Fold each of these.
Amino acid sequence: MFTSEQMSRAVGLQARSYELLQWVSSAITKGFVSFKTAHHYASAASAAEEWITRHYLDIPERARPAIEDMKDFCGLFSTYLENSFELVSDPGKRLYSPDAHCFCPLCSWLVDVPNLKARRPAPTDKKRAQRMIHDALDHLVSKQDVWLEEKHREAILKDTSLREHLALLAYGHDLLRRMKGNAVGPASLVLWRMFAWLPSGSPKKKFKLSAEMFLQAEQAVKEKVLHISGASHVQTI
């Protein structure tokens, strides 16, 4: 079961590691960091820890972990390139127009495309995300010391009102594993988009992950499990 302290720490480390990834991408564009160096230390926890320790004071404070959090921070940071993003050495340029109001030669110009590119989940990643949700539900059920028939588990998994709660539950467990450097690939990104994006396929404006979201999601699924298991027990008797 999640705790407020545990998830607050995980969310804080995730926010800082994402900030560092953004900074690294910017540093590549500006020539402060080479692509080869960035890719090396952003894809291996041990390499990340060595590089961050050496350049600790050069990294912006918002993207810098506390010394006591270094190992878990680097573990999480190193999973980004396998889960959600890829660094592109020569991303090229794209046409830019302020507010996209006009793309004629007078109102638009070419700008560098960021070196950081979001991954595109494949069907196998979506299947793996569903498996992670199923596993997270099984874990929660086991902690409640109740019996839940498979048909009732499937009913919970198909409950649209629990869609975001279940995704958050699975993502929370994955976030804790990522702090140990364990990456599942773009399946993690699939889970993220199930609660941080709208059903229409665009990010929720001003969405910000919090520890409370994980605790509320776990509680909502727990209540559903206990309700169904209790009703099932009564019917069996």
Amino acid sequence: MEQVKLALRSALPFLIALPVLWGVSEVLRYYEFTSFQYILMMAFIDVILAVSLNVINGFTGQFSIGHAGFMAIGAYTAAKITLAARGLEIIGLPPGISDQVIFLLALLAGMCTASIAGFLVGMPSLRLRGDYLAIVTLGFNEIIRVVIENTSFLGQATGLSGLPRRTTLVWVGMGAMATILMARRLVGSTHGRALLAIREDEVAAEAMGVNTTGYKVRAFVISAAFAGLAGGLLVHLIQLCTPRSFTFVKSIEVVVMVVLGGMGSITGSVIAAFVLRFGVEALREAQQYRMVLYSMLLIVLMLTRPTGLFGTREIWDWLPRLRRNRAEGGAR
């Protein structure tokens, strides 16, 4: 009975979010707010990327700048599956539902291949720390991009075109919610406490018996898997899978979101992803100066709030404090 209650409690956020996202999507489609809907979907994808990278950079205290590489692996895996399965139908299911099930399987496959890549990269490199780890992840990002550009099976520099439009507001919204819940459950678990101990003092954590390398590899695998999910959603939104979407600049964009929101804050990553996405769209005419704007933003942020907008705090940490203050005010 307790297991059933736990399962229902875990599924409740998704059961609530699903009709809400579907309703918002239908309203936007009815009023033909296609541009706003597209930006909103891109913002949700950014949330997946920022929160998943926060598992490494925020919770574990490492510094990875190769998130776009894992994103590319998941994107190409999902794209190849959906292209190969075009025209196929699962027996016993209507065509529309069959397409969605195939898309779900493609996204899961992308997450698996990205997590395997995260494991392969993490095992030899996560014995490194600080700048050395950043250089390794940057090199991995560039290796993946160059390999894709020189592999005919993956379309080389042209990429894979003609992908079916499978990504919807419901898909990206549910993906973002799954990523947020993953991060929140992780940070509150035994594994999460070990990651936080590594962030605070890796030498002390190792002296206390924490397998620092093992936990860092696990964090890398989890983060890479959700980066692969974001990649699969992205390419099925723009209907094009090209290595130009997964360059070093993309990795830096995600790092900026994490630093802006606060290293270790899930809430900060979510808010920063939305702020930067809508801010970039508002300054579309200055797109060529995007990296300059990001650099200026980071400089101002480091001078005014070195820990980011939220630091390591979460919005739900303030709710008990607000209730307590109201209760004390009512008692007076």
